[in-house]
Amino acid sequence: xxxxxxxxxxxxxxxxxxxxxxxxxxxxxxxxxxxxxxxxxxxxxxxxxxxxxxxxxxxxxxxxxxxxxxxxxxxxxxxxxxxxxxxxxxxxxxxxxxxxxxxxxxxxxxxxxxxxxxxxxxxxxxxxxxxxxxx
Length: 135
Description:
Layout: H1 4-13, H2 19-29, E1 37-41, E2 50-55, E3 59-65, E4 70-76, E5 80-87, E6 95-101, E7 106-110, H3 120-134
Antiparallel strand pairs: 1-2, 2-3, 3-4, 5-6, 6-7
InterPro entries: DUF3908
Pfam families: DUF3908
């Protein structure tokens, strides 16, 4: 399951509490055709806050949700200053990705910390895809 479309279909068939709410929020602002890469941070962890990143041709859009509120942040016409991927020597799909934008914002994704053991390999593939799209 590497595509955004596949992920949405999977989540639509299974109830993940309030997290289906974040997916419906995404549909208000982004069409499926715009999505070049995505990353559902903390979707399958015990974290109180979930972030869902969408990468389009010209924007990074962060959807964030916690128990009190949800918000949407657009990074329009972003320019990547540095992009660093780290691949584990012990686990084939374990990945970390650090993105620093010229505007000063930075993002850090970790396939192990941001998911659970069932999703870790898939998250590694999401990270690899983001790296390929942004390089």
